[in-house]
Amino acid sequence: MKINDWQIIEYDEVKSTNDEALIMSQKSLAGYYVIKADKQTGGRGRRGRSWVGLEGNLFFSMLFEFDIKKFGILTVICSLTLLQCIEKLNDKVKVQIKWPNDVLLNGAKVSGILLEKAEGDFVVAGIGVNIMQSPKSEQMMYPVTSLKENYINTTANDFLKLYLEIFDNNVKKLKENGFTGLRQQWVDKAKGIGERIVVKQNNKEISGILEGIDDDACLLLKENNNISRVLAGDVYYES
Ligand code: BTN
Known about the structure:
Layout: E1 2-3, E2 6-14, H1 17-24, E3 32-40, E4 43-44, E5 50-51, E6 58-65, H2 71-89, E7 95-98, E8 102-105, E9 108-117, E10 122-129, H3 156-177, H4 180-189, E11 196-201, E12 204-213, E13 219-223, E14 226-230, E15 234-237
Parallel strand pairs: 2-3
Antiparallel strand pairs: 1-2, 3-6, 4-5, 6-10, 7-8, 8-9, 9-10, 11-12, 11-15, 12-13, 13-14
Helix pairs in contact: 2-3, 2-4
């Protein structure tokens, strides 16, 4: 199957579509690939976490050439694309982005993105979307939800098609007009702009007023008139 220029490779079940994409990148390839699975048994999340593979949800990894120095920009494009897909399916719901790349639907996490460097100039953008259900466990770090729980009815395949169309359109905008417009769209939808937030890193916490993101998509935090750039971490809001 092909959607735009994307060659879609479909599996019933894999451990992780990101792992499949990373293996695929070892062959000398050219082009644009999507590895999609109906079921994932060992899905990986950011910062060494796992991603639960519930039935009916969407699990896919995009494999394509992208300038590794622009990883941050790719993060913005992927999260903005997810948000725009959900808004297109229902323009009444509240969709926001939580840095670096979580999409929140009515305040709860509905999708996750794991970007990884692959062979050569290839990158893997692994995306999970809770279409039909969300993992309910007391160990979750944040509230989680699914599209279905918010009365948004779609399927994993339909969502993927919409995602690729909007993603391609955003990449075209980046090529034609640069990053500024996309960054502003991201900032307009980011949760907590102008508010005090805490970023938790491995063994450190940084607190400050969320100002936005810079050209590399690093978080900008203001404290006592100093702006600091944050490269990684988990964001916590005060309210
Ligand atoms: C996160 O929020 O921690 C990122 C989760 C990313 C999950 C997706 S599901 C498809 C792809 N394959 C994986 O193993 N992980 C990503």
